[in-house]
Structure formats: structure tokens, C-alpha cells
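Example record

The entry below shows one chain as it appears in the dataset: sequence first, then C-alpha cells.
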Amino acid sequence: MPRLSLPRPQLRWIDALTVLVCIALVTALAMNLDPKQPPRFDEAVLDWIGESIRGPLRAVLVQVYRISGVGFTFVLVLAALFYVSFKRWWRDLAMLVVATGGILLIVDRLLKPFFDRSRPHEKLLEVDGRSFPSGHAAGGVVFYFAMVTILAAHHPRLRWPLTIGAGLWVALVWLSTLVVRAHWPSDLIAGGAVGLAWLTVCLSIWRSPADSSP
């Protein structure tokens, strides 16, 4: 009777280096973290953005932040899961579920309660919850670039347009997050690093064919 085993992650040296760099970056940011007193760099960046981005541009970015919120993202993830299921890309579906579900647990259930950092003051919108690392940043990196990887695997010619489009959208969401003062800049950097590290691990498993030995 054949014996099935789970896929073994194929963590290439560049993947291992990426994960280590991300861990080092988050650790360095966390070591300078004071839950009650943000670094001067964070305050300076938010103040500069507040002074530089005003008028219609600020209004547009506020709407970008609203659009990219939990409700919209939830609908988008459900649509992606439905599409991948409809295509019968079962391996891709499993990776997408683990990647998106896992990053929520890592950030919201593990890291945010551990660091317990307060959000910036004078927010333009009502935002609840802890601040470090940013779940907005981590989830965006994982979901959008997981979908880019899945779609590019089936449609190689779309790889670069999808990558550029996802990168621009994530950057726009990050800027909108800073404009509404929902997160400190270091929250976004740490969130992006956590998301990239987790996505790298998920993709290393996704690339590995399941072992099937007698």
C-alpha cells in the first residue's frame, strides 16, 4: 500500500537568507520599541507626511485606506479562494489558505499582543487594536504576492504586470495608512518583513512536490 508523506519544504539559500534578514529586521525594530513612546523617526515621518500631503490627494488616500480595510480584503480573499477552487488548482488553494490564515494568527494572536504597542495619536479615522507589527502590511504582502505567484505559474506572461501592479497597490495602501496615522512607519516595515518571511516559507512548501513512496 503506498505511503503518502507531506511535502518537504525546498528552502533555497536565497529563501533562507530572506527569512533571516526579515527576522533580524523585526528583531532590531522590536529592540528599540517602547509601547508608550514612539521613536522620533516615526513621529518625524508622520509629521512630514501630514504637512506634505493635503487637500484632494489626502482625501483620495483616506478613501484608499477605507477601501483596503478588513471588509474589502475579506471579500477579495473569498473571491480569490472561489476562483482558485473553480479552476481546480487544489495545491494553490491549500497554499493560499495556509498563507492568509497563518499570517492572521501570527500577527493578531501572537505578535501584536506580545508587543502591545499603541497606535499613533491624532488619527484621521477611528482604528482599534494594537499597532506593532502592522497586520495591514503583513496581510497585503502575503495575499497579493501569493496570488501573483499563483497566477504567474499558470500564466507566465502576466508575471511582471501582476508583480508591478501588486507592488504599486501595496505601496499605495502603505502610504494611505501613514496619511491617516493608523500605524507608525516602523509598524509597516515590521509587518512587511513578517509577511515576506511567512510567504517565503509557504512558497517553499508550495514548490515542493508531495513525496509518494511505496
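Notes for this example: The two ends are 7 Å apart (CA to CA). Confidence is low (pLDDT under 50) at residues 1-6.
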